[in-house]
Amino acid sequence: MTSCTVNWYPTSADLMEEFLRASAHGSHSAREAYLAREALLGILRLSRAEQMLAIRRSVNKLVPVSLRPQPVRRGKAKRSPPSDPGQTQFVFGREN
User: Is this model's pTM higher than 0.70 or not?
Assistant: First the structure.
């Protein structure tokens, strides 16, 4: 009888590799395995993005507008004229 003090939880990469091995049945070439792995990664990214969007929407429903953080609005930055005249001497289309 072995005692396991550390719980091991498979990562998404482990689960994906196990799924690919189970679905391949030894017939996948290296290219097909790569394409299947990339397709699964794309599906995982999409599902994570959808989960985050659902969480954000539920938070927006639950938190009143007055308590939500307001986005910081920045004014238009004014450009200062170049201090070094050497920086403007190579401007194309300008005749001095």
Answer: no
